[in-house]
Design a protein that fits this description.
The chain is of the alpha+beta class. The protein contains twelve helices and 15 strands.
């Protein structure tokens, strides 16, 4: 049995969370108080339970190939092949979050008008709680266009007949068969951590509208050349065209982009500052959708003399049931869909003291123009940092590090979700039988789909909570995100 995280009890699937366990006004109120940290400072050991559920998926079974052999018109043998069996599997591993069941029950009571005064007071608390949980589910899917094929063959005094299903690649596939595509859980999780980091960098509510500090810092390298300056006097040599291209891509184009961003930020400064004040202390929800990525591997030829399954080749006087084998190819298609959902909260300086007004002015200047000196700014001004950002998300990591150390910014909950499907399609074409009949063209496709949800810490994905500072834990405790000392 796998180990449970600290403070969480590990229960077998039969003990997993059920809705009926949380019905009843008295129990609901107790759970609401526990969720909000108002009653018990220690996390209840039943708040999360782990479940691991499996079931087999039967796609094909009980189909057999019948083969008869005759000699001088008399039946010599009548045999059936082992039954076809194509079986996949679905498996779901998840942590069940009690908050979700509590919220669903409160929503039901609200819809039915049965909410009491005490539960109404906790309703707003429950709606701000993290009701999600990490999970992984994998599922096999299968498709084919197989059909029953009948054929006859004669060789002197011998006669043969076959009748039964014909599959392009395999007729017996178990849930553990290597025919089903595999998706590495560790590799997918690492990809999702990187995607989650990028999504946070794009959705932080305190992100500056422009990058004035970076713009001014890059001016130390000088302004780009006037368009066409590299072509003057060089008579259009290949090198001059390359210089002109680079001057536009890394000089003129970024300069125009900076001017536009700064101009737009100044134009909408009042609206941006009003939003910053309005959302201060609130739960700001954000969602980010990644583009769907589909990759198709080069077509692979598995065999140029393939006979399908189950085999119809017979032994004896006959050379076999086939006049010639077909060509078997394999095509792999991978599709990945990913998205992020999370919530943020931050504090905009209030008060009339001089320090409060200075801090408020600094926050406003950064929100509009991006005027802070941060680790991200130093990174962006480092030579060749753009090349590193092309092949990694280090820039996003530094951006998030800079943002979460200012403005009391915290992410009470955040998740990155991903659905990845790998489909292997086997196509058999050009197979023909002795004795006539159509040329066989058939396919089988075997798919594995993994759906995964990864949870973030309040300061980003993939972080060790043991490295959080006392100040960070204090902020989490004040916001009710931490339900126990140095424990989420």
């Amino acid at each position: 049995m796998r180990n449970a995280p600290p403070g969480v009890s590990l229960l077998p699937p039969s003990k997993s969370t059920r809705r009926e366990d949380f019905e009843g006004e008295e129990h609901l109120v107790s759970l609401i108080r526990n969720l909000s940290g108002c009653e018990n400072p220690q996390r209840n050991s039943t708040m999360s339970t782990f479940s691991d559920r499996k079931r087999d998926l039967i796609f094909k079974d009980k189909e057999v190939l019948n083969q008869k052999q005759y000699y001088l018109g008399g039946l010599l043998s009548d045999k059936n092949s082992p039954p076809s069996s194509i079986v996949g599997r679905q498996r779901t591993m998840s942590w069940n979050n009690t908050s979700w069941w509590v919220l669903q029950e409160l929503n039901r009571l609200a819809r039915e008008g049965k909410m009491t005064k005490e539960s109404q007071g906790g309703y707003s608390v429950a709606r701000t709680q993290d009701a999600g949980s990490p999970f992984t589910t994998s599922k096999n899917e299968y498709k084919d266009n197989s059909r029953v094929i009948s054929s006859t063959n004669s060789a002197g005094a011998w006669d043969y007949s076959q009748s039964g299903p014909l599959y392009a690649y395999q007729d017996v596939v178990s849930p553990s068969s290597s025919v089903w595509p595999t998706i590495s859980d560790i590799s997918l999780q690492n990809e999702m951590l990187a995607m989650g980091t990028t999504a946070i960098a794009r959705t932080i509510p305190t992100n500056p509208a422009a990058g004035m500090a970076q713009f001014l810092g890059e001016l130390r390298e000088g302004l780009p050349k006037v368009p066409g300056a590299n072509l003057i006097g060089k008579k259009g040599t290949p090198g001059s065209y390359a210089d002109e291209y680079l001057n536009y891509q890394f000089g003129i184009s970024p300069l125009i982009k900076d001017f536009r961003e700064i101009g737009s930020a100044v134009l909408h400064a009042e609206k941006r500052l009003a939003q910053l004040r309005r959302d201060s202390g609130r739960l700001v929800r954000r969602r980010y959708q990644f583009p769907v990525v589909t990759t198709i591997d080069p077509l692979q030829t598995v065999s140029t003399n393939w006979f399908g399954a189950p085999s119809r080749n017979v032994t004896g006087a006959s050379a076999g049931a086939y006049s010639r084998g077909g060509v078997l190819t394999k095509e792999r298609v991978t599709t990945t869909r990913a998205w992020f959902s999370g919530s943020y909260t931050y504090l905009y300086a209030e008060g009339s003291r001089v320090l409060d007004r200075l801090k408020r002015a600094e926050q406003g200047a950064n929100a509009v123009l991006g005027a802070r000196l941060t680790p991200e700014l130093l990174w962006e001004l480092t030579p060749w940092s753009w090349a590193v950002d092309w092949v990694s998300n280090l820039g996003d990591v530094i951006h998030n590090l800079s943002a979460f150390t200012r403005d009391g910014l915290v992410m009470p909950w955040g998740y990155v979700m991903c659905t990845r499907t790998i489909t292997d399609t086997y196509r058999l074409s050009g197979l023909t039988f002795d004795g006539g009949g159509p040329t066989i063209d058939t396919f089988q496709s075997f798919s594995t789909t993994v759906k995964k949800r990864v949870k973030a810490t309040p300061y980003g994905f993939g972080l060790d909570t043991g490295s959080f500072t006392s100040r960070q834990w204090a902020i989490l405790g004040a916001l009710g995100v931490s339900r126990a000392q140095r424990q989420l």
